[in-house]
Each structure stands twice: as structure tokens, then as C-alpha cells.
Amino acid sequence: MPYDISEKLKIAVTTRAIFKLEQENEIFEKKGRAEYEKYQIEHEDDILIPGAAYSLVSALLKLNSIDKLNHKIEVIIMSRNSVNTSLRVFNSIKNYNLDISRGIFTGGGDLAPYLEALKIDLFLTANPYDAQAAINRKVPAATLLTNNIPDYNIGDSVREIRIAFDGDAVLFSEESEAIYKQKGLEAFAANEELNAKNPMNEGPFAKFLKTIAEIQKNIQDTDLNIRTALVTARNAPSHERVVRTLRAWDVCIDEAFFLGGISKTEVLKAFGAHIFFDDQMTYTEAASSVIPSGTVPYQAGSTLNEE
To answer: PANTHER family, alphabetically (predicted)?
Structure first.
């Protein structure tokens, strides 16, 4: 019988997201595919350094040690590279004892069709083009910032997985943010007050949050915990619609920060997130100096893509 992943939390991660491959990527961009492959083959026994996605992926994989979750987390390596370069990646995976055994190497082909075929729940990449293509197919995706990766906690002692989300255009739909962008803060505030009791529609990461919330319920009596946070530029009174939306979804966020324009970076550092998802690069670039951060693109055709 085929291996069934339909009930699992399926995470696809590119090689440059889970490991530091900026030097190798520079070889690819400046000297081409052949020189890149040659370099990778010559160094395939050299263990790669953890990258921006490593912290979250390694922490989530620890959930597979909990018997009643029935190996809930499935991580699949996705790469535009050829299979010739795969040995270095899987050697590094083995070195770090990561529970990852599946990979897709497209030899330059697009990844998005395979993300859709596998019904991936979260795609982490260092390539904005691939993140955009995934979002366009309604696959939750984020471009991780990889140029300045701090020394994240990657030890085996992690007992709490911490995930932080922005609200509008990430957990929630983009309608309210579009009003803010097109008509300004006053119109946004008026709309949110008028619709305070009307739950917002789901954004690209709503299903992922709901899945995490279900997992939280099943691990309450174990040694491993998940803690979620909402870190948003909203403040009162626009916070009410957020609370009522999460209540309608039957999701309880562990911590919520309604910052009203205050910098998110120090709050995220204090929270100690394994990753932070936001739709605005202004926030993810600042946060990436202290915690792993990913920018969530807007769907093609969204008004939020307009200058």
C-alpha cells in the first residue's frame, strides 16, 4: 500500500531554507549550474550549517516522538537542483538526526505543481518566485530571509515550539488591510468598528494555525508544548474583530500583541519565536536579525501588490 500522508501536517522546505547555502547559491548565480553541481559533489561530505527554517523544522519534528500523534509531521525536501546535489543535503539531515527521508529534486523545474499535488500545508523557501507561485496555487508559503541568520537555538533540549503570526493578510484575509492601504487608518478603524462582530475571512495561514491548535490539544499532557502568538499593528478598538474571529474559528492564541505601530522586533525576540510570519518585508527584515522570519506574498492580482 502507498504511504498515506493525507492526515499529516505536511511541510515542504527548500534546501536553501533549511541550510545555509548562500555561498553555494552565489556560485550558481555567477558561474552556472555545472559549476554549482561540481562544487556540491566535491563537498558532499561537508556538513551544512543550519539555516533559517531549521529551527522550526527541527522543533516540529520532535512531535513525531509523541505516540498518540501517530507521526503527525511530514517534512519533505523540495529543490530546483538536480538529484546529483542531493547527497550533501541528506548527509547533513542524517548528521542532525532529522526525521526527513523524502525529497523532490526538479532539475530546474517549477516546484509549485508538486506542492499542490502533495497538498502541502506549509512551504518554506528562500526564493520569492517559488513562494509567489505557491501562494497563487493557494499553498501557504513564505520567503525566509537568509542573508543574516542569527545563532538560533537548535539544541535537542527544546521543549516548547513557538510560532508567531501577523494578522491581516496572513491569518486573516487581506480585505481590511486593503482598506487601510487604499483609504488610510481612519477608514480602516471605522470599518473594523462597524464589523467588530463579523468574523474575518481566512487568510493563507489560517488552516496552518488551526492544525497547530488541534495538535496543541493533543499534547497537553506531554513534555512538549506549542505556543502561538499574534503580533499585529492593530490596537483597540480594532482588536475586537480579531478576538471574535479567533473565537469563531475555535482557536485560542496563547499570546496576543496589539502594538498599534510599535516595533515588533523586540517583542518577537522576547517571545523567542522559532519563526515569525508577516506579509510586510519591513517587519520581517527587522525581525530576521533576532529570530527566523518569513514574508508571506500576496496573491497575484491583489490590490496590495500595487504601489
So the answer is: CYTOSOLIC 5'-NUCLEOTIDASE 1 FAMILY MEMBER, CYTOSOLIC 5'-NUCLEOTIDASE 1A
Domain locations along the chain: 9-144, 160-305
Strand partners, 2: none
Q: What is the mean pLDDT of residues 134-141?
A: 96
In this structure, which CATH number among 1.10.10, 1.20.272, 3.40.50, 3.30.310 belongs to the domain 9-144?
3.40.50
Alpha carbon 44 to its chain's center: 27
Lowest-pLDDT range of 29-33, 58-62, 148-152, 286-290: 148-152
Alpha helices in 118-238 (DSSP H): 128-136, 175-183, 185-194, 206-218
The domains spanning 9-144 and 160-305 adopt the same CATH topology: yes
CATH level 3 topology of 160-305: Rossmann fold (3.40.50)
Query: Given 166, 168, 278, 279, which residue is catalytic?
Result: 166
Closest CA to 15 of 97, 116, 124: 124
Antiparallel, parallel or unpaired: β 122-125 and 275-278: unpaired
278 CB-contact burial (10 Å; exposed 0-12 / middle 13-18 / buried 19+): buried
Confidence at 159, pLDDT banded by 50, 70, 90: confident
H helices of 33-106, in order, are: 33-42, 54-61, 86-95
The percentage of the chain sitting over the pLDDT mark of 70, rounded to a whole number, equals: 96
How far is residue 86's CA from residue 22's CA, in Å, rounded to a whole number?
Answer: 16
Annotated catalytic residue 223 = no
